[in-house]
TrEMBL record:
Pathway: Cofactor biosynthesis; tetrahydrofolate biosynthesis; 2-amino-4-hydroxy-6-hydroxymethyl-7,8-dihydropteridine diphosphate from 7,8-dihydroneopterin triphosphate: step 4/4. It comes from Chromobacterium sphagni. Gene3D superfamilies: 7,8-Dihydro-6-hydroxymethylpterin-pyrophosphokinase HPPK (3.30.70.560). It comes from the Bacteria. It holds the Pfam family HPPK. The keyword Nucleotide-binding applies. Its EC number is 2.7.6.3. The lineage of its organism: Bacteria, Pseudomonadati, Pseudomonadota, Betaproteobacteria, Neisseriales. Belongs to the HPPK family. Coiled coil: none annotated. This is 2-amino-4-hydroxy-6-hydroxymethyldihydropteridine pyrophosphokinase.
Length: 168
């Protein structure tokens, strides 16, 4: 079993539906099973702020695809969904990032694993902590890292896409 975590995000063209459809597409990749995924989260944009909020989630896959082949398949899904790369942090129909692949630590022009900025991003770490709160080699204690981030602007949604009521 080779476990991989993928971050999903969208802020255009019914983003919650885009993320749900992308989760289904991940489960249909050759040699890959979708084991589970986080809730959907509404998050404020990072970098370029003049755009709609994002819907984000994280998926756990079991895959037989090597890391670069999986990355190519993620790019192919983005393209099928109409992803355009106009500028850094631009609004997008779908963004898929390979966060973590088993215990692989690698750096290269196409792919760095674990994802080099994941530990700084609440919109990644909060959903990741929901499905993988423990230690990930090369990353650390996911739940502790998530708690240490500024989570203002990260809001968990219910199954209908509405904000969940806060538990007292």
């Amino acid at each position: 079993m080779t476990l991989a975590y993928v971050a999903l995000g969208s802020n255009l063209e019914q983003p919650a539906e885009q993320v749900r459809a992308a989760l289904a597409a991940l489960g249909h990749l050759a040699g890959t099973s979708l084991l589970r995924h986080s809730s959907l989260y509404r998050t404020a944009p990072v970098g370029y702020a003049d755009q709609p909020d994002f819907i984000n989630a994280v998926a756990l896959l079991d895959t037989r695809l090597p890391p670069l082949d999986l990355l190519d398949q993620l790019f192919a899904i983005e393209q099928r969904f109409g992803r355009e790369r106009s500028f850094r942090n631009a609004p997008r129909v779908l963004d898929l990032d390979l966060l973590y692949y088993d215990d692989v630590i690698m750096g290269g022009p196409q792919l760095t694993l674990p994802h080099p900025r994941m530990r700084e991003r609440a919109f990644v770490m909060v959903p990741l902590a929901e499905i993988a709160p423990g230690m990930l080699p090369g990353v650390g204690d996911v739940a502790a890292l998530a708690v240490g981030l500024d989570c203002a602007g990260v809001e968990r949604l219910d199954d209908g896409g509405e904000p969940q009521e806060k538990q007292e």
